[in-house]
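Technical annex B. To support the medicinal chemistry partners, we prepared a structural model of the target in complex with iron/sulfur cluster, based solely on the information shown next.
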Amino acid sequence: MDDVMEAVLSALQARHIRGFYAGDAGAACRRILELIPKGSTVGIGDSVSLKQLGALDALVARGVRVLDPFEPKPEGMDAEDYRKHRERLRKETITGEIFLTGTNALTRDGRLVNVDATGNRVAGMFWGHPLSIVVVGRNKIVRDLEEAFGRIRQVIAPTHFYVRSTELRGRIRKTPCAATGECQDCRSAERGCNIFSIIEGKPSQTELHVILVDLDLGLGWDPSWPAGRIAQIREAYKRYVSIQA
Ligand code: SF4
C-alpha cells in the first residue's frame, strides 16, 4: 500500500468511517463477501467499479439477494413496465438491509464526494439502512474538495454522458455534454448533475465502510496522467457502463 492510500485510510478512521485496503479484485470481492452475510438483501447504487470487480456476480453466487435498478431489461418486458420495475427497485434499494455502491471522488482527508441525477445513489450511501459499503478505486483519490468538484464537473459527468449517448449510442440525453463531452453547466431539463453530496463523517444511523482498492476502477482521472492510463480507464468503463437509462 502506498503512502497516499495509507493516509486516506487513517483519515477515514478519524471520521469514524471504517476503511479497508484491497490489493486486487480478488481481495476486494472477498472483503465484500465477508461484510455481507449469506441470505441478506443488498441494494446497489449504480457503479461500474462493482461490475469491474465481479462483485455482483460473486454476491449472487453466494446466495445474496441483489437489487440492481440498472439490471438490463428482462426479455419480453415492455419499456413502461421496465421503467416501473426500475422505479420499484430504486425505492427498495434505499430502505433495504445493506447498500453497496462506488463513489465519484474521495479526498485525501477522507471526504466522499458525489454527483447524482436522481439522488437514489447518493441518498443510499448515508440513509435508510444499517450498513453502507462503498468501493473506491485508487484513481478516485483526489487532493481536496476543489479537485473533487473539478474532476466531477470537467471529467466524470461530461465523459459519462458522452460515452453513453454518443460513443455507445445508448439513450440520447439532451444535454450539451452528451454531444461534445464537455460540460457547459447546462440548464437542460435532462441535466444529470442535479445533486452533489459530501460525506464528512459517519452518518449517525448508518455504519459506513469504504473498501479502497489498489486498481483503477470506474470513471475518473487527472488530465495530467499518461494518455495510456486514461485510455485504459475509459475503455474499461465503456465495457461495463449501463446505457439503457
Ligand atoms: S451540467 Fe449539464 S452539460 Fe454539464 S456535465 Fe452536467 S448534464 Fe452535462
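Notes passed to the chemistry partners:
Strands lie at 18-22, 41-44, 65-67, 98-102, 105-107, 112-116, 131-137, 141-142, 195-199, 207-213.
The chain has a mean pLDDT of 93.
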